[in-house]
Structures are given as structure tokens and as C-alpha cells.
């Protein structure tokens, strides 16, 4: 793999600033953001008043803990534009996340918000090793989803040549990567696997692809998956994180030279990790729910937003800003099987160790009699389709999951291609249990 480390002069000064400088900037910006939200969004005025706090009660960063949380339901209740802090005619862009139930969550950006978004995504792409003039194959979906257009904005800011291919039409994806000689690809890790399959289906060697780096996010994925993809394509695989409520992609990104977690771009997004049960702020290093406060956003300020993503914060390494560990899962994706908490990423880790199985999977939850059953739908790797190979692979996966994760599951091994493919975010869990 090519060395994509930054050269002297590649980074913005804030990326290597001292912690004191970062904290001073954050405090200034946080004061502004709390006041901006309080004065311009009736929801925040009411929620701060109900909690008996005012923006001027923030004297130091840790005072943020006095302010109330915001949850997804608050955004739905204020559908569509009730959380906006600027008049409609200052809004330059609207995005929305569909979610699985109810109202979509609508977010807005001013022109200046779009500039900031471009900068943080540019910083993210640079952290991943992309440089001005490189060609980026952007396979995140374009549209209301923030992935496609958010990455595009950052690629423009960095000065890349962008191929706005969006998701889908997998044969064409491979053809364009090869014909245009893409240096980097931005795509969900699950769709990257479909592109990988298509390389093989076309008789092409993915290790000889022009790609130097893949920038994967929008869904949880594991270090085991990183190894799988890096090996298959002979390229770097780095993690990009974000959510529409906070901005979109580019809230945090891994550095290609260290790959040790995602630096949160803390000059714009202030992270906290809380105990999801008590709401108490946890010290860095402890696992809990990630909470974000925007520091510079104009159209859609967000104060203490509970992401439901589980992670921990660590000190900076390649950059001074703190790192968040790879998100192991969302509290929404957590399955509880006979008292044991299970995340799809834990299944992914074990599955990737069984060489006779392909890396695609779905977890089905069924009610059998009075008991819940977890069934892993996966498929044979090419060359391991024979019945005895499949049985052995299924048995091995059952044992691994029992030993490492601590639950007994059933495993179905389908033919290659038998598991439904994603073109964006993978659906990992299908819950067939009757609704209570
Ligand atoms: O998924 C934004 C994005 C687009 C991020 C492209 C990265 C790349 P939403 O659709 O609002 O926004 O979904 C946000 O997706 O709360 C996480 O649960 C999950 N997620 C996003 N990035 C990661 C990641 C975009 N790197 C939700 N690892 C978040 C794990 C991720 N989960």
C-alpha cells in the first residue's frame, strides 16, 4: 500500500494546535452557539428555561453538563423547520434522513454552514490521504441523504476531481473506477463488498485496481472488515463518521497514517460521552453514548444531541483533537438474546474469521415457541459451495459466536449471492418477532 502520510505544510494549524488553544476556541464558540440557539429557536428557549439554565451560565466547557439533552423525537416534533435558527430565506440547503418510522428528520444549512461542511469534509478526505488533483469515485447516495452531496462539497473544497456516481449499478461502478483510474473511493463498507464481488465477477483482479484508499462510513464496520477490504483491494481503508443532525459526513475521520480511531473535528463539533441510563457525563476513555453540541452552525444549531452511537473518547495522536473509537453499534441495533447484549458488529467479527464464508450477512430474529431465536443468514465463499464445506463453516461460526459472544445462534449458509446486497447502508437486522 502506498504511503499517504501528510507532508509538512499539509495540515491546517488548528489540527496541530495545543489543547489549550482548542479549549479556548471551543469555549468562545460554545457560548455563541448556546446563545444563538436560545434566542432563535423556541424549542431551545423552552428547554433551557424548563431546566433553569441560561447561556450565560456557561463559564467553562464542563458547564455544558447543566444544559438539557436534545433527542431525535424533539426534531420530529418540530417538523419540518421548527428547529431552524435563521429565517427560511437564509437557508441554502435542506437534507433529511428517512429513518425507519414516522416523520423524516429535516436539517438545514446556511451558505456559511455549507462552507464549514466543505472544510471539515476536505479535512477528512485529506486525513484519509487524498490530495488536490486526485480523482475521487463518490458512491455514497446523492439526494436527501447527506453522504453523496456532503462528500462532494468537501471534495470540491479540497480540489479533487469528483466522479458523482452515487450508489447502484454496480457493473458501472467497476468500469468507471477502472477507466477513470480513481485514486480514492467513498462508499459504505457493505456496498464496497458488492463492488468487490463485481470485480471478481468481471474476472478483474481488485488488487490491481487504481484505488489507493477507501473512505468508509455511514454504518458500523469492524477492524476485521478493514483487514478484509485492505487485503482484497491492496488499498488503505479508513473510517469516516457523521450524522445529518450534526452536519453529515465529516464530523470525525481517521488518519491514514495511524488508523487508530476517528479524530473528532472538535473546533466545530463538541463531543461528550454519557452514561445512557443516567445521562451523567463520563470521563474520557469510558464507553457510553456519544453526544454532540454544534459550535458554529447557523441554520440548525444542535445542543447536546444524543446520537445513540456507542463509543469512547481518547486523546489525540496524529492530530491534537480527540479521537473516538470506532462505533461498535447504535443502542437501537443492540439485540438482547436471553439476557446477552449482541451487536451486529460482533457477528461480523466472527464471520470474517471463517474463510469458507463470504463477508455478507444479515441477522434474523424469530420467535420460536416462547423463545427468541437469532439466525445468521450468510453465504458460502466461492469454492466452498459443497454441502460438507457449508456444514463445517456453519458449525464453526456457531461455535465461535457461542464462545466469544456468548449466545447460541442458528446459521444458514446460502449460495454465493444469496444474501441481499445493500447499495447504501446495509440492513443488518431483520426482526420477525411479533410486536408486543
Ligand atoms: O450516515 C452521514 C454519513 C454519510 C457518514 C457518509 C459517513 C459517510 P445519517 O444518515 O444521519 O448520516 O446517519 C447517521 O449513521 O448516527 C451512526 O449510527 C451511523 N454512522 C455514520 N457513520 C458511521 C461510522 C450519515 N463511521 C448514523 N461508523 C450515525 C459507524 C456510523 N456508524
Give structural notes.
- By secondary structure, this protein is of the alpha/beta class.
- It has ten helices and 21 strands.
- The protein has a nine-stranded mixed beta sheet with strand order 4-3-5-6-7-8-9-14-13, with helices on both faces. The chain has a four-stranded antiparallel beta sheet with strand order 10-11-12-15. Strands 20-19-18-21 form a four-stranded mixed beta sheet.
- Helix 1 crosses helix 2.
- Residues 97, 140, 145-147, 217-220, 239-244, 248-249, 307, 309, 327, 330 line the site of 5'-O-[hydroxy(phenylacetyl)phosphoryl]adenosine.
- 5'-O-[hydroxy(phenylacetyl)phosphoryl]adenosine (DLL) binds at residues 97, 140, 145-147, 217-220, 239-244, 248-249, 307, 309, 327, 330.
Please give the structural blueprint:
Layout: H1 19-40, H2 42-51, H3 72-77, E1 93-97, E2 105-109, H4 111-127, E3 135-138, H5 146-158, E4 161-163, H6 170-180, E5 184-187, H7 189-201, E6 213-217, H8 223-233, E7 236-243, E8 248-254, E9 262-264, E10 269-274, E11 288-294, E12 305-311, E13 313-314, E14 323-324, E15 329-330, E16 335-337, E17 340-342, H9 344-351, E18 357-368, E19 371-380, H10 387-405, E20 410-414, E21 429-431
Parallel strand pairs: 3-4, 3-5, 5-6, 6-7, 18-21, 19-20
Antiparallel strand pairs: 1-2, 7-8, 8-9, 9-14, 10-11, 11-12, 12-15, 13-14, 16-17, 18-19
Amino acid at each position: 500500500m502506498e504511503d499517504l502520510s501528510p507532508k509538512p505544510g499539509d495540515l491546517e494549524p488548528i489540527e496541530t494546535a495545543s489543547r489549550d488553544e482548542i479549549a479556548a476556541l471551543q469555549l468562545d464558540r460554545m457560548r455563541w452557539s448556546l446563545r444563538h440557539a436560545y434566542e432563535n429557536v423556541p424549542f431551545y428557549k423552552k428547554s433551557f428555561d424548563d431546566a433553569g439554565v441560561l447561556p450565560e451560565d456557561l463559564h467553562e466547557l464542563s458547564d455544558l453538563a447543566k444544559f438539557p439533552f436534545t433527542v431525535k423525537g424533539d426534531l420530529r416534533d418540530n417538523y419540518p423547520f421548527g428547529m431552524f435558527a435563521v429565517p427560511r430565506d437564509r437557508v441554502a440547503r435542506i437534507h433529511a434522513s428517512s429513518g425507519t418510522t414516522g416523520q423524516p428528520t429535516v436539517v438545514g444549512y446556511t451558505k456559511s454552514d455549507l462552507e464549514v461542511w466543505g472544510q471539515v469534509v476536505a479535512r477528512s478526505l485529506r486525513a484519509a490521504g487524498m490530495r488536490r488533483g486526485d480523482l475521487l469515485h463518490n458512491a455514497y447516495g446523492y439526494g436527501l441523504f447527506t453522504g453523496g452531496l456532503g462528500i462532494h462539497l468537501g471534495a470540491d473544497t479540497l480540489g479533487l476531481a469528483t466522479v458523482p456516481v452515487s450508489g447502484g449499478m454496480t457493473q458501472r461502478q467497476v468500469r468507471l473506477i477502472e477507466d477513470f483510474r480513481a485514486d480514492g473511493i467513498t462508499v459504505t463498507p457493505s456496498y464496497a463488498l458488492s463492488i468487490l464481488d463485481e470485480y471478481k465477477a468481471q474476472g478483474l483482479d481488485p488488487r490491481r485496481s487504481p484505488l489507493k484508499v477507501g473512505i468508509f462510513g455511514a454504518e458500523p464496520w469492524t477492524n476485521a472488515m478493514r483487514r478484509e477490504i485492505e487485503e482484497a483491494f491492496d488499498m488503505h481503508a479508513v473510517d469516516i463518521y457523521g450524522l445529518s443532525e450534526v452536519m453529515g459526513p465529516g464530523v470525525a475521520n481517521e488518519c491514514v497514517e495511524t488508523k487508530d480511531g476517528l479524530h473528532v473535528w472538535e473546533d466545530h463539533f463538541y463531543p461528550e460521552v454519557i452514561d445512557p441510563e443516567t445521562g451523567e457525563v463520563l470521563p474520557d476513555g469510558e464507553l457510553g453514548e456519544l453526544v454532540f453540541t454544534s459550535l458554529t452552525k447557523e441554520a440548525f444549531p444542535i445542543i447536546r444531541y444524543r446520537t445513540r452511537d456507542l463509543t469512547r473518547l481518547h486523546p489525540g495522536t496524529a492530530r491534537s483533537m480527540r479521537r473516538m473509537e470506532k462505533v461498535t453499534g447504535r443502542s437501537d441495533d443492540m439485540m438482547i438474546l436471553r439476557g446477552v447484549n449482541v451487536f451486529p458488529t460482533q457477528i461480523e467479527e466472527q464471520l470474517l474469521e471463517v474463510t469458507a464464508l463470504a463477508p455478507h450477512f444479515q441477522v434474523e430474529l424469530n420467535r420460536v415457541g416462547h423463545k427468541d431465536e437469532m439466525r445468521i443468514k450468510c453465504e458460502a465463499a466461492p469454492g466452498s459451495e459443497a454441502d460438507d464445506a457449508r456444514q463445517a463453516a456453519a458449525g464453526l461460526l456457531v461455535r465461535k459466536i457461542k464462545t466469544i459472544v456468548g449466545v447460541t445462534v442458528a446459521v444458514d449458509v446460502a449460495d454465493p449471492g444469496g444474501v441481499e446486497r445493500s447499495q447504501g447502508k446495509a440492513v443488518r437486522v431483520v426482526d420477525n418477532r411479533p410486536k408486543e
